[in-house]
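tool=predict chain=A
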Amino acid sequence: MVTITAEPLAPGAMLKQRYEIVRLIKGGGMSWIYQVRERRRDATTRLWALKELRMDDDDRHSLAEARQMFEQEAHILVQLSHRNLPQVAAYFAEGERSYLVMEFIHGETLQERLTQARAPLLESQVAPWAIQVCDVLDYLHTRQPPIIFRDVKPGNIMVTPNGEIKVIDFGIARTYKVGKQRDTITMGSENYAAPEQWGQGQTDPRSDIYSLGATLYHLLTNEPPLPAFVPGERLPIRQLNPAVSQELAGVVERAMAPERGDRYHSAAEMRAALLRCLPPWERLRLQARPQERPLQGQSAAMQETVPVVAAPQPREAPAPVAATDVAATDVAATDVGAITRSAPAYPATGAGLYCRACGALNRPDGRYCRLCGARIQEGVAASLSVIGSAPRATRFTLGHQPVVLGRSSGSQRVDLDLSPLDPDAYVSRRHAQITYADGRYWLADLGSSNGTYLNDGRLERERAVALRHGDRIRLGRVEMAFSQR
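tool=predict ok
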């Protein structure tokens, strides 16, 4: 009898005499997720995310099915190459366990963004994200045979610090079989799965379009839609969030049509509709964006331990949010989720700088890690400085994570608590939010009582406005200056 232990691998454990376990990131469902360090023959190292098939003794009866799905995920991913999909380095088995080595992605899932915001996300962010997801779906749906993702949801979409989307977790993806009446296994997340995923027929590209529509509904309202099998009509998106434009609400409603024939016929058609919801300058920028990542000698055949990924490109690691009396955090994530951790920077030495992501030593004047591409000299991205009388010189440093400004109370916390500067309580508990996207900072009012003012003009509720160096922001009677370098 085969026994599969539920215990995760310990830090320091080696696989294939090559991959060293650094830490366990998360465990759930059928897999453990680790951060691993690859030790190469040339004495260099690189960080990867390692996904391990996880089965308890009580689950032995479904072990064969789980292994089949895990191998299916590996076989699908290793043949794909797209900038919005995680790169695959290796797939192998050791003992009774199976492993998938993938790109380590800095960022967080859209579900985590919702949890942090505790409010609907901004249309100016959500629409560009959705267009990138359409790019991925169009790429998958046009493979031969087509690949149906079947599990589009906020938890399976990551956003990196520079605003790039990564679609993750192909655990229940499948190839489309012409002429088949229904799927062998009915799967999906109930709030996002199309009606046909509940045993009414075979999933096809329009099933993923429904799930993307349901995902947008959740992001824009902070309310997950009713499952497709629940009788009754769901609330219109603009009834839950009047700030959503009629154009975008119409796109979501068509994508979520109960009848497949009433939905967009392809992800490319939905992408075109989303582009029409954007301002002209944003539309042009996204239309010019390359969609597929060029292959770098990647073979369709499964490689056991030889990496098949491109050389790392410089990219920014997530910058922490720091403020007066506020602890800084560092957010890192893999292609199957994200985890928040306290991570002090590696110390500088006389010989150079250590990378906090992989530990490699770099030149003292280096900006990006020579091995993993993470930024090693971050500097100040932007800041808010209080104008006028204050107990002391008060300056808040902004990173690349969303920052909610307001007044903390009890269990309801905000990122920047302005209570010490607002004794008469003119600032609302969740007053405004600053987000970073596409290289710019954006300010939005969250429905405050006294309004959010930018250079003496009152902002429309939940409509994000780009900030410029020298802008003056007023929340209640607290006035601040925005600076960026």
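The two ends are 63 Å apart (CA to CA). Confidence is low (pLDDT under 50) at residues 172-186, 291-351.
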